[in-house]
Amino acid sequence: PIAWFSVTFNAAAIIVAHNHPSGIAEPSHADRELTNRLYDAMKLLEIRLLDHVVTAGVHYVSFSERGWL
């Protein structure tokens, strides 16, 4: 759905986010793998993935701020 919406609405760039109900904002290995795959897919579509933000309560982790994108 992310790629479909991005193409349908002619996005130049996207930011994705999700929450961790556990209360720990640190991205899991699966989060990092998914982000890498999403980055590669968006690159093929010439759409920039600007950030992936993981939230947990009042805490967050930004992949962009960490230099992971």
UniProtKB/TrEMBL annotation:
<feature type="domain" description="MPN">
    <location>
        <begin position="1"/>
        <end position="69"/>
    </location>
</feature>
<keyword id="KW-0378">Hydrolase</keyword>
<keyword id="KW-0482">Metalloprotease</keyword>
<dbReference type="InterPro" id="IPR025657">
    <property type="entry name" value="RadC_JAB"/>
</dbReference>
<dbReference type="InterPro" id="IPR001405">
    <property type="entry name" value="UPF0758"/>
</dbReference>
<dbReference type="GO" id="GO:0046872">
    <property type="term" value="F:metal ion binding"/>
</dbReference>
<keyword id="KW-0479">Metal-binding</keyword>
<dbReference type="InterPro" id="IPR037518">
    <property type="entry name" value="MPN"/>
</dbReference>
<dbReference type="InterPro" id="IPR020891">
    <property type="entry name" value="UPF0758_CS"/>
</dbReference>
<dbReference type="GO" id="GO:0008237">
    <property type="term" value="F:metallopeptidase activity"/>
</dbReference>
<keyword id="KW-0645">Protease</keyword>
<keyword id="KW-0862">Zinc</keyword>
<dbReference type="Pfam" id="PF04002">
    <property type="entry name" value="RadC"/>
</dbReference>
<dbReference type="GO" id="GO:0006508">
    <property type="term" value="P:proteolysis"/>
</dbReference>
<protein>
    <recommendedName>
        <fullName>MPN domain-containing protein</fullName>
    </recommendedName>
</protein>
